[in-house]
Write a structure and sequence with these properties.
It is a single chain. The protein has 5 helices and no strands. The chain has helices at residues 11-39, 49-62, 71-96, 106-123, 135-163.
Length: 164
């Protein structure tokens, strides 16, 4: 027996779509950042915030830092886990409040930039304070999160359309 399409919110379908959307957007954001790094003349030896976060988690969970040769992989795990979680939260919010998707995910992207890169990362000691950060780094952050937000919204819409 087939079910008729409905506009009734479905938290589980939204969460599943958000999980996939967040992972896909994390991948595209990662590729965007790799492309920018390859084209950039800036050479940054700074440890990424995701690797610093992985180290902090490791210290709490197992009592020691991650070996240097494993930090890139651990940083990627943090990047994808955060992206997946943000995708779930975003998709569930969008299921109940479609206005959350304003600008095809760009409002979500700007919120992520402001709350994560500009506030949370410096607040927990994973990065410099915003006023100590170069303007080009802020621009890079906004552009990266715009990619993340728009891909999250695009994949979410595609999947939710298929699930209805």
């Amino acid at each position: 027996m087939a079910h008729a399409p409905t506009d009734t919110p479905n938290i589980w379908a939204a969460a599943a779509a958000g999980l996939v959307a967040g992972l896909a957007a994390s991948f595209v954001m990662d590729r965007f950042q790799a492309g920018v790094a390859a084209l950039s003349s800036l050479d940054s030896d700074a440890e990424p915030a995701t690797e610093k976060a992985a180290d902090k988690v490791s210290q709490v969970v197992v009592g020691h830092e991650i070996p240097d040769d494993r930090k890139p992989l651990a940083g990627q795990a943090v990047h994808y886990a955060l992206g997946a979680g943000l995708g779930v939260v975003y998709a569930v919010a969008a299921e109940y409040r479609p206005a959350v998707t304003a600008g095809y995910g760009t409002a979500f992207a700007l919120a992520n930039t402001a709350l994560l890169d500009e506030a949370a990362v410096p607040a927990v000691g994973l990065g410099e304070a915003p006023w100590k950060t170069a303007p080009s780094t802020h621009l890079y952050s906004v552009a990266s999160h715009m990619v993340f937000g728009t891909v999250t919204e695009g994949v979410r819409r595609l999947l939710r359309g298929w699930m209805r």
